[in-house]
Amino acid sequence: MNFIDKLIAAVKKYENPSVAGLDPRLEYIPEAIREKASREYGGGFTAAAEAIITFNKKLIDALYDIVPAVKLQLACYEMYGIEGMRAFAETCAYARSKGMLVIADGKRNDIGSTAEAYSSAYLGKTPIDGSERSVFDADALTVNPYLGYDGVKPFIDDCSASGKGIFILVKTSNKSSGQLQDIVTQDGRYIYEKVAELVDEWGSSVMGCSGYSSVGAVVGATYPQQASVLRKIMKKAYILVPGYGAQGGTAKDAAKSFNDDGLGAIINASRSIMCAWKSERWAEKYGEDGFDQAARDEAVRMREDIHSALETKRECD
Amino acid sequence: MNFIDKLIAAVKKYENPSVAGLDPRLEYIPEAIREKASREYGGGFTAAAEAIITFNKKLIDALYDIVPAVKLQLACYEMYGIEGMRAFAETCAYARSKGMLVIADGKRNDIGSTAEAYSSAYLGKTPIDGSERSVFDADALTVNPYLGYDGVKPFIDDCSASGKGIFILVKTSNKSSGQLQDIVTQDGRYIYEKVAELVDEWGSSVMGCSGYSSVGAVVGATYPQQASVLRKIMKKAYILVPGYGAQGGTAKDAAKSFNDDGLGAIINASRSIMCAWKSERWAEKYGEDGFDQAARDEAVRMREDIHSALETKRECD
Prior knowledge:
Distance between the termini of chain A: 33 Å
Low-confidence stretches of chain A: none
Order of helices and strands of chain A: HEHHEHHEHEEEHEHHEHEHEHHH
Oligomer: homodimer
């Protein structure tokens, strides 16, 4: 089955167009988990990786029947070296075993032959011993468009061959995203609009039964005006929306990335879910031991927040 | 010591502005090495990683006293999973132990807080157990500029704090690089020129005694005309030039990225050095067992090739 059809089926099943970001920092993890890992593994990156694995698995246990997908920020794993990558691999496998879709947020990019190697690592398979083997085996990967089509095609080929997806950076959520992405071109358009046109074009070869493509886009919730424009340019792209919550984007902002069918976007929250147990809203109710329940309650609150923003959008449009 | 001053000192010492790309593919590795690893490690990614490590170390042994730096393409290691990352780490450490500078070619990019995590992984240090530890500890990293300054600043901070360097993608060597990079802006300039201006500006905070910055740029040998223009825009950026050899760029093309002082660029060759033993030029002389000597001879040939192209440039300019 096509990635995008799997994603939409899961979004509909849970009535929840959101993604839980598992971008662990050690300070997000309750002391008890970190101490236990330190005792058992003697500190260092091995203990850090074990703490992350325990934390992630408990979050997945608390979320898998209400949230369709997780997004793993690769940098947060790479910073703990080989042990960190082991935590990444174990988290991917565990989330998939629980039926969640896994988005590897790696923003990978390179020339064609090298993009192929990246795609083997995260989406496709690596040839070995006369056969082929999955490596990290995520369901989707974020990709940077700066190199143009021949750097993106290998990923699209794996979308097609292995039922995977990609989300291409179009308008990122950070403050200085405009420095390059908002440059105005000769024909009076922004670079992010040009990239959106390319995403729309590139996605046409991997359409799902749903009418959406397995080639999606990244558009930050922090740029709602641009999101409205981009939604129209990339009619069939699913938009992955970062920037909700801790980065300042609201559900109303994120709603701009949806189509009138109530589909077309998924909203990611990382810190607000992972650190719900530390937040003003949930800390008193749950404390450190109830971090997973706090994450679940926050995920439910977020879902309702999105529902009500989409409702308002329907009424006002 | 500043990264760029270290690089320039090494280039001068070996009279060689070139970089050996260690972007291993199993088919580049002599059969005997692969078979031995398979026998000892029972096949799979562990045997692949061991074969890569043996191959890389022998290449480093053959090159370290004539070539100043190696460039490791991360995708080629990630495609073998955790074992591949172990091969990456061991190769980095071995090359540094032999006095070579290590450029991690990862084209990483993300919003500020995440770029920080990437920078910890490859350039800086990761906080752990109340202290800090180096992770992969390369000397430099390639970085993609699509997110603008706040996604690049964390890397520059580590250049400054830890004597490291970055090379920012400006004009990449692949065929479709123009799709985004050659878009003409409102003021009649190309996107790659705009990015070059940013690179020049961003680099001003990490200048070496040499007058060059530790913030460099990537400009493909396959675009010599653009290289001439970019050389003038980024006067103080060191340019990492991919695309020489197997990708079709000549020494004359690559020479466009040098300044009149004979400095300002380093030229990478991967396949032509790693696979020298398979090439028409060296296969007969060396065969499989002499792959490291073939690589050395090819590196010497490349150095002479660059010298003569720079000589011609001096005479003609």
